[in-house]
Amino acid sequence: MILKDYEITEKVLKGDIEMYELLIEKYENLVKSIIYGMLYNEEITKDLTQDVFLKAFKKLKQYNKKYPFKFWLTRITKNHTIDFLRKSKNNASINDINPMDYSYTDEDISVRNEERKRMENAMLKLNEDDRMLLYLKYHEDYSNTELSDIMNIPMKNIRLKIFRAKEKLKRILEQDEYFNSYREVENE
């Protein structure tokens, strides 16, 4: 019998702490994906993923079973990652999460990898909220209603926030020489 998330949380709160492992197994990839989508650094992603699950465990009493556990955990992940980014900026250690630090062993990097790297750099230039909003919308495929809940943005404003974040990203990409030269080749 497969247990629902709220049933697992109830068991954990009643003392069956080992049941929490089921939630970790179920949502670990989601949490890692969201964090990595904000930081583009595997090492820090691993550390923050552990932090998120520890924080969620400590706050489990606050979870409202009327709502999906996934959204509650996503909100914790979002807040924890944004807090990390803000602290990193304040401590001037944001260089630790520079995507240009990747070490590629393949001498012939494909065009796709180059585009991905450029997109990661462009995403890192967005503010944390815009980056999280676009990542959850287009990578994790959250609906506008879900985004409204997770990001704590009124539903009537969510489409405008997405539009503005996309416009900011577009302007950043338009300043990128690679994308401009690529578009010129496409238009020929």
Outline the structure in words:
The protein has 188 residues and is mainly alpha-helical. The chain has two domains: 1-97, RNA polymerase sigma factor, region 2, helix turn helix motif (Rna Polymerase Sigma Factor, Chain: A, Orthogonal Bundle), CATH 1.10.1740.10; 104-188, Winged helix-like DNA-binding domain superfamily/Winged helix DNA-binding domain (Arc Repressor Mutant, subunit A, Orthogonal Bundle), CATH 1.10.10.10. Helices cover 71% and strands 0% of the residues. It has helices at residues 5-13, 20-39, 42-58, 69-90, 111-125, 128-138, 144-151, 155-174, 177-187. Helix 6 (128-138) packs across helix 8. The chain is globular, with a radius of gyration of 19 Å. Mean pLDDT is 83; it is low at 92-109.
List strands and helices in order, with pairings.
Layout: H1 5-13, H2 20-39, H3 42-58, H4 69-90, H5 111-125, H6 128-138, H7 144-151, H8 155-174, H9 177-187
Helix pairs in contact: 2-3, 2-4, 3-4, 4-7, 6-8, 7-8
